[in-house]
Amino acid sequence: MSHWLPLAVIVPLVAGALTPALAHGRPGLARAWAVAVTAWCTFATALLTSRVALTGPFSYEMGGWAAPWGIELRFDEFSAAALFICVIMLLVLVFSGPYVRRALPEARITWYYSLLLINLGGMIGFVVTGDLFNLFVFMELVAVSSYALVAVGGGRTAALAAFKYLIAGAVSSALILFCIGVLYSLTGSLNMADVALRLATIESPAPVMLALAGMTVAFLVKAGLFPVHVWLPDAHAIAPTPINAVSSALVVKLGIIGLLRILPLFGAVSLAPLYEALAWLGAISVLAGAFFALFQQDIKLMLAYSTISNIGYIVLGLGLAGELAVTGAGIHVLNHALIKAALFLAAGAMIHQSGYRTLHDLRGIGRAMPWTTLALLVGALSIVGLPPTAGFLGKWYIALGALEAGRPGFAVVVLAGALIIFAYLARMLNAFYFRAPSHEEMLAVREAPASMLLPVLVLAALCVLGGLLGRWPVMLIAPAVGRLVGGG
Amino acid sequence: MAALWGNIDYAAFVVLFCIGLYIIIAKQNLIKKLLGLNIMETAVFAFVVTSGMVDGGTAPIVGPGMSGPFASPLPHAMVLTGIVVAVSITALALCLIIEIYRQCGTLEADELKGAE
Amino acid sequence: MNQVFDLVMLALLIAMALAVARSKDLVAAAMIFSGYGLVMCLLWQHRGAPDVAMTEAAIGAGVTTILVLLAIGRTCRREK
Amino acid sequence: MRKSLVAITIAAAAVPMLIGVAGLPRPGDPSAAVHTHVAARYIAEGAHETGADNLVTGVLLNYRGFDTFGEVMIIFAALAAVMAVLPRGATGLPGAGAASGIPISPIVAFIIRLTAPFIAAFGAFVIFKGHVSPGGGFQGGVILGALLMMLSLVLGRGVDRPLIPARSARWLQAAAPLAFFAVGVLGLGLTGAVLGYPAEPGRELLRELMMIFLEIGIGVGGGAIILGLFLETRGE
Questions:
Q1: I need a surface site. Which of A335, A421, D60, D204 has the fewest CB within 10 A?
Q2: Using one digit for the tens of pLDDT, what is the confidence trace for D12-30?
Q3: ipTM (interface predicted TM)
Q4: In terms of Cα–Cα distance, which of D135, D157, D163 is closest to D60?
Q5: Residues 52-81 of B with CB under 8 A from A
Q6: Are the Cβ atoms of A159 and B40 closer than 8 angstroms?
Q7: Would you say A109 and A100 are in contact if contact means Cβ atoms under 8 Å apart?
């Protein structure tokens, strides 16, 4: 029996609750404790992912109660995202050792690691649960810890950015709970598979459409898609670097995975108009995100806007609803997490070492921090989507899906988005490598400390590996895509 | 629209939801926005509790003397969790407000927009 | 009789929500919000949900209002 | 311009919600899916299967115990968030800008001291009898938390000298997740499913003990967390 599944969710959460108690006298212990727990979670999710790859989706009934009466955890191919979540969180924890000792006041460090563990447990719970209300509870858990982690850096406008993020998140959460209430009122159950079955027999379409529209809008707000992205740039740029990586690479993806969870519920309703809207919103978001990124001087703001653009790619892939396009979207959810984590950690290491944030001030850093800049170069090539890297696969499948669906316009959008980002990155790399430093002390800047450099290099290697071994994730999520597109 | 009269309670909760949304969007003071958020969340909880109600039903406590139709206990469990979530978010939001006031000296959204 | 009680409660809730929206003094708004929570608690008690009513009274109307008043104490009392 | 933008947004939210809500089954209709599907089993066999007469507590701790574990983690995450966000002095105490310190009048202080034991008794009653009468861990926890708040005010024990010393407060605040972990692993041992309760005829007492243990954990943990939130928000 796979008790790994519930324990993979419960252990990080309880460990997060124990961190302040254990590390009361010894703040150094908090980080070691967090890294150990996250390593265990990585092992557990790797076991679960290998099991789903071999034997297909499986579920676990909490408390021994059968599905609609108790809570059912359902680990399917999309839940394999839990492995990516654990790997990236492990690297972020290793990275945040020296960074946090300097960036955060002493008293906040234990609570920082406690919040990160709770964030990890909430994300794993979110991707594995098969129960609607459980999904809401874990989404709130991730939300509360993310609001605090954005503000933990204590910058001048950190609290205001966190407050805007909180209001946007809480309004969309209230809307999601309202839609869960509508679905419960219609079907009488909260288990996703059971609700899907019973929704097919509902005659009055109005409440079903309301629940579908409400949840889609709410999850798109949480994913930071263009028209409803207002909270994202400040929240992702002002937070400490490890939190940028966690929120831009992982937390934002929960909105997409939430969408992937609720779309099969509405199999009976014709989803064509919804997919059309998603495709157009995604396309607009691709161009708008890339366009805004072009004008940013601050590296972190640029990376935050490029997240909005890549979320646009994923939503565009979902909107095209073809086999190829949805596979591309699924792949890009995973690969973009690796790429964005590598980019944010590399840029953060540069800011940490040199103290400068804008393109102009960071000129000539290529010579001072060769390895970090190399990792940033690999990340930049991946985000543009050049062939050997991980970013290429997702965009390639989405472009193919657009052509297959007879919508060449969207394929052009995919290309245009990549070109705009390429223009910015060319300027950035030109500044790092070929321009004379605009500040003398840039030459005195030393390479990042080992425990910050190692995760950055590992992530850059994973970006290239993700590109070369791209076949495996595609095969892994193929059955889930088949169910979603076949049933949709 | 005749059906709406049958569900007049739901209509009232939607109105409360929109009053909360109005307060969040239109009012400038951050504490006022937070109260609007709480009004909106309480309206959603009221909607969920009301969906579990049954005509002439009593509390879902199956004691010796209890009889008659019982209200469904599932929405009550959901709303209990929801209320705890709402107070958690409110506590965090208030501390962010205290931090914003300490740094920017004002709680009016339009003045804060200029401070960035 | 039940229908009248419910309608009165709903009307009262909407009136209090609007009062919170209009009042310039934040302490008054917090107090009206506490009353709003208690009326909601009464409504749920009437709908056969004593657990939720008790929780709403204790947490929704109680703890939330105390925290809001504390925060008002540390910031400013009037809305401009 | 801004007024019309606000009006459009509100209308864009209100109209579809009203139309959608009108299509829902009438609340209170006994034949609605809400009462005939999952809830029908909770009401019919709930008391027997969970051993809790108060079915809401039965659902909260037994059928959907995992939700309540998530909820307990959310209230702890709120405390962790407040501790991580509020400014810390060198000694780890919240900074200046404290509430206006109007001294408690002796009359109020006396009344609070007088009623303290009764409030404590009522809180304990709500926690212990949570599975047979309305109430439960959270409500009891909030009542105990409110009592601790009042005593902190009356005894002048602010955040610098908290009523519960910081070291033990950290363990008390983690009481609820720990209780859930203990019951979950015990349930795994007894019934082969995490958070499972033994349902054999001879094991009713053990099941009730496990449930009361959870209620105490949630009550004590909730009370300590709410006291922590109060002290942190209040500052000096």
A1: D204
A2: 999 999 999 998 888 888 8
A3: 0.94
A4: D135
A5: 74-75, 78, 81
A6: no
A7: yes
pLDDT means per 10 residues, chain D with 236 residues, are: 89 93 87 86 86 89 93 96 80 49 81 92 90 85 92 83 86 94 93 88 88 93 94 84
Do B46 and C68 count as a contact with CB atoms less than 8 A apart?
Answer: no
Tell me if residue C78 falls in helix, strand or coil. Answer: strand
Judge residue A468's burial from the number of C-beta atoms within 10 Å of its C-beta, 0-12 exposed, 13-18 middle, 19 or more buried: exposed
- Is A487 a residue whose pLDDT tops 70? no
More confident residue, A153 or A94: A94
Measured distance CA(B16)–CA(B30) in Å, rounded: 19
Question: Which amino acid makes up residue A371?
Answer: W
Note whether A231 and A165 are within 8 A (CB): yes
What does the DSSP 8-state code read for residue D134? Answer: S
- What pLDDT digit, counting tens, does each position of D118-135 carry? 999 999 999 988 888 888
Per the CB < 8 A criterion, the answer to whether A168 and A235 are in contact is: no
DSSP label at residue A58: E
How buried is A472 (Cβ within 10 angstroms: 0-12 exposed, 13-18 middle, 19+ buried)?
exposed
Which amino acid appears at position A405 of this protein? A
Closest by Cα among A302, A306, A294, A159 to A226: A306
Q: Cβ atoms within 10 A of the Cβ of A44, count?
A: 23
CATH of B2-55+70-115 given 1.10.1740.10, 2.60.40.2150, 3.10.180.10, 1.10.287.3510: 1.10.287.3510
CB contact (8 A) between residue B55 and residue D30: yes
Residue in D73, D40, A174 with CA at minimum distance from that of residue B46: A174
In the numeric block, the tokens 């009680």 are attached to C5
| CA distance linking residue A186 with residue A209, whole number of Å | 12
Residues of A (170-209) whose Cβ lies below 8 Å from D: 178, 182, 184-190, 198, 204-207, 209
User: What's the CA gap between A359 and A297, in Å, rounded?
Assistant: 6
Restricting to D residues 68-97, those with a Cβ less than 8 Å away from any Cβ of B are 68, 70-71, 74-75, 77-79, 81-82, 85-87, 95, 97
CA distance A140 to B103: 27
Q: Are D80 and A148 in contact (CB under 8 A)?
A: yes
Q: Do A166 and B92 touch (CB under 8 A)?
A: yes
Distance of alpha carbon A371 from alpha carbon A196, whole angstroms: 50
Q: Is B11–D18 a contact, with Cβ atoms under 8 angstroms apart?
A: yes
Evaluate whether B69 touches B52 at the Cβ level (below 8 Å).
Answer: no
Positive or negative, the CA dihedral A163, A169, A172, A178 is negative
- Within a 10 A sphere around the Cβ of A370, how many other Cβ atoms? 12
Distance (Å, whole) CA A395 – CA A389 = 11
pLDDT at A289: 93
Report d(CA D119, CA D143) in Å as an integer.
7
Q: Which two tokens stand for residue B89?
A: 């978010």
Choose the mutation target among B29, B33, B98 for the interface with C, i.e. most C CBs under 10 Å: B29
DSSP letter for D163, please: S
What does pTM read for this prediction?
0.95
C-alpha angle with apex A74: A68 to A78, nearest 5 degrees?
Answer: 140
pLDDT of residue D2: 83
As a whole number of angstroms, the distance between CA D151 and CA A440 comes to 60
| A156 shares contact with chain B (CB less than 8 Å) | yes
Distance CA A53, CA A393 (A): 20
On whether the CB atoms of residues A274 and A212 are closer than 8 A, the answer is: yes
φ/ψ of A298, rounded to 5, equals: -75, 125
Region of A343 please: left (phi>0), alpha (psi -120 to 50) or beta.
Answer: alpha
